[in-house]
Write a structure and sequence with these properties.
This protein is an alpha/beta fold and about 750 residues long. The chain has 25 helices and 22 strands.
Length: about 750
């Protein structure tokens, strides 16, 4: 967290920075200097490089960061991107009161891929109870204007959500309705900062007013079908990811103040003067040195870092002792339960009392907002995540159908147990793009014994999840002769294996016995076991991108896939993909963020001298694209963007009818000689819009052929949009979507993207 501006244009009476115990802000510079920003960026990059971090998250904070102005913000953002992006994925965020947000700043935030959280407490009465100017004037209209800007399609990719501080004197129903009316991708409901020395207000007779207030909103949210993400409630679910305020995950936040000093999480300012200090700064001390400060280290110890009362509590794994700052009491320090302890226990009990779906659920955006977001040409990472959640739900339904076909089995029981004890491992396996094609093949009534479709997928899925979770189990797995694939992990080639194997999961690998074969497999990338072909990782900022050249169900693209690649060829492809990923982030950062949000696998296509440059997407394999191996990262970058558009739109069409049913008419388009069905034209338009945005960006820097390519794709896309709108083949939602695409196209033509 970078405190880029240490003053604020509002005077909120509940602000922990200015109104609570710590007053160190008074001695700090108003703005973070360029030298300080540069040193902070270098320290972060150094830390990411030394630890091989897949991503770092940097939040611009204050005070009020928008007080830097557009020029000051650009300077900081450029410094961060230049220093950090070569080493890891940089997830840039900003927390702002929104008062100063305008179109110029929004364009800057979109340009640098900054996701913005806005502080907003609800309806006018709730918001203006605390969030006012120094003269007492209302900030409500200013903030709503900022939120309206972020909802515009051109800026939606920078809209991260709303931060709302709870005040139990406000009407929870009116607050809930006011928050959802702003269409936030996520809402953070925060308890007001308080300690045992300065406890929270508790008006009324109830002993848990904060839990009661929050449970009113939770009940509305559940009854309404969970419209949108409310982080607090998701974190408190039994399988929730937790937050800084809940759960036992290690603390992972450090603050750089405006003068370059390293501090602990800034909520500690509510405890006592100087509570967040470390004595370190970015000029002389590394991230590791700051992270070894005792106040940071104790929050890496999980339950052992909590007081005895918390360690004995039955919900300690859910609550995690609450926010660290809220445990402060003079004399015993932070060795106490949260001052909100009773509320947290009641809140967890109340959340558990509401029924949950049997499997996966996702916080969903309203349809119009999801489609508007995608109609920008790229869509936000949150929207891509929602599409992935929808696709996972389809996979789960297919999995249940396969279970009905197979009947009760030990593998199914194991998978069901892991769903409860290790849901992250199960999800990682089920999200693999080629699980769904396997299930579709399995359910094909024409499958015959011996077909790959006839192989029961449940045992292999259970093994993959158990290996990921480190659960020692033994499973009987049907396999292809002499070959066993463990989805997401790799393939074992073992002569004499036969068609069935006993697989025992062990620490660091598994043992396979079947036929005349007996082999222990070590999952060590540096020293793989003989016959084990691990799925290859590509070092992209988004995390784990796989080159999948072994999975038997990757052959779902309507054109032949390449056989398993030789190691030098695979390494060369990996380098090209990593460079292509960086090219996408360079040319069209918003499309780069969309790739980061959901593209997980690349499948090599078989070479064809007649068509050396090809790519493809399969409707049943969301999260993957297929490409021919090509040495030029600039070319491959265009292929990735183009095919990922098809994947996203395919997921949309699984969910929404954009083309009216029964449309037999075919439309002529300039990029194909044959007339195309409306859905095919829609797919082409969506892919070509993205390619237009790529070439338009390149044209602004390199000119030449890029300008010609941009003009050609622009003309193609416009012709396709006009043909669709004139055809009357679209639903109302489809017309709205295509009309928004035309708007995005014209913005691209005007050079505003």
């Amino acid at each position: 967290m970078l405190k880029v501006h240490s003053r604020c244009d509002l005077s909120c009476d509940h602000c922990y920075v200015y109104q609570h115990a710590d007053q160190t802000w008074r001695d700090r510079p108003v703005r973070m200097s360029p030298a300080t920003a540069r040193s902070a960026a270098r320290r972060i990059a150094e830390h990411a490089r030394e630890h091989g971090l897949p991503a770092v998250h940097v939040v611009l904070h204050g005070g009020e960061p928008l007080l830097l102005g557009a020029a000051g913000l650009r300077e900081v953002l450029a410094e961060l991107r230049a220093a950090i992006s070569p080493w890891t994925l940089l997830d840039l965020r900003m927390q702002t009161n929104g008062v100063l947000l305008d179109e110029e700043l929004c364009r800057l935030l979109v340009e640098y891929g900054v996701r913005v959280g806005v502080s907003f407490d609800g309806d006018r009465a709730a918001n203006d109870r605390h969030r006012v100017f120094a003269h007492g004037g209302s900030s409500h209209d200013h903030v709503r204007r900022a939120l309206a800007l972020l909802r515009q399609p051109a800026f939606r990719s920078s809209y991260a959500g709303i931060l709302c501080t709870v005040d139990v004197r406000n009407d929870p129903d009116r607050v809930y309705e006011a928050l959802l009316a702003e269409g936030p991708p996520r809402v953070d409901l925060l308890l007001p900062h308080a300690t045992w020395d300065d406890p929270p207000e508790r008006p009324g007779p109830g002993v848990t007013p904060y839990a009661d207030w929050l449970l009113r909103i939770h009940r509305r949210w559940v009854d309404d079908g969970r419209p949108g993400s409310i982080r607090l409630f998701e974190a408190l679910r039994p399988d929730g990811a937790g937050t800084e305020a809940f759960g036992l995950a290690p603390a992972d936040v450090l603050v750089v103040e405006a003068d370059g000093t390293w501090e602990q999480v800034d909520s500690l300012k509510t405890a006592y003067h100087g509570a967040a200090g470390t004595g370190f700064d970015v000029f002389a001390h590394s991230v590791d040195e700051a992270a070894r400060h005792p106040g940071v280290a104790i929050r890496q110890e999980g339950v052992q870092g909590l007081c005895a009362t918390c360690r004995a509590c039955p919900v300690v794994d859910r609550c995690g002792g609450g926010l660290y700052a809220h445990r402060w009491r003079t004399g015993s320090g932070f060795d106490n339960p949260s001052v909100y302890c009773a509320d947290l226990l009641r809140l967890i009990e109340g959340v558990d009392a509401d029924p949950e779906p049997a499997h996966e659920w996702s916080a969903t955006m309203p349809p119009d907002e999801l489609l508007d977001d995608l109609a920008t040409g790229h869509g936000s990472p949150q929207t891509v995540r929602q599409l992935a959640d929808d696709q996972l739900a389809i996979t789960r339904m297919l999995l249940a159908a396969c279970r009905e076909m197979s009947g009760p089995t030990a593998a199914w029981e194991l998978l069901a147990d892991l769903e409860v004890t290790a849901p992250t491992a199960v999800r990682a396996v089920l999200e693999h793009p080629f699980i769904r094609p396997w299930l579709v093949h399995r359910l094909d009534p024409s499958a015959r014994p011996g077909d790959r479709a006839a192989v029961d997928p449940l045992p292999a899925l259970a093994v993959a999840a158990a290996v990921r979770a480190g659960v020692p189990v033994t499973v009987d797995v049907p396999v292809r002769p002499d070959m066993m694939t463990v989805p997401t992990l790799g393939t074992l080639v073992l002569p004499g294996l036969g068609e069935s194997a006993e697989v025992t999961v062990q620490p660091g690998g598994f043992r396979v016995r079947g036929g005349s074969a007996d082999r222990t497999v070590r999952l060590d990338p540096a020293d793989p076991s003989a016959g084990w072909r691990p799925t290859r990782d590509v070092p992209v900022p988004a995390g784990r991108l796989l080159i999948e050249d072994d999975d038997p169900y990757r052959d779902c693209y309507g054109q032949p896939v390449a056989p398993a690649l030789a190691p030098p060829t695979a390494r060369a492809l990996g380098r090209t993909l990593a460079e292509a990923w960086q090219v996408v982030h360079r040319d069209v950062p918003a499309h780069g963020a969309a790739l980061d949000g959901g593209l997980r696998v690349v499948v090599p296509l078989a070479p064809d001298p007649a068509r050396p440059l090809r790519s493809a997407t399969a409707r049943d394999a969301f999260g993957a694209v297929a490409v021919t191996t090509h040495p030029d990262p600039e070319t491959v970058a265009v292929l990735l963007v183009h095919e990922w558009q098809h994947a996203k739109l395919g997921a949309v069409l699984d969910r929404y009818d954009l083309v009216a049913p029964g449309q037999g008419a075919r439309l002529r388009v300039p990029w194909r000689p044959d007339p195309r069905p409306p859905e095919g034209v829609l797919q082409g338009v969506y892919a070509h819009l993205a390619v237009t945005q790529v070439w338009r960006s390149r044209a602004s820097t390199v000119g030449g052929d890029a300008s010609e390519h941009a003009a050609r794709y622009l003309a193609w896309t416009r012709a396709g949009v006009d043909a669709l709108l004139a055809s009357r083949s679209l639903t109302a939602a489809g017309e709205r979507f295509v009309d928004q695409l035309r708007h995005a196209l014209e913005e691209t033509r005007a050079g505003s993207r």
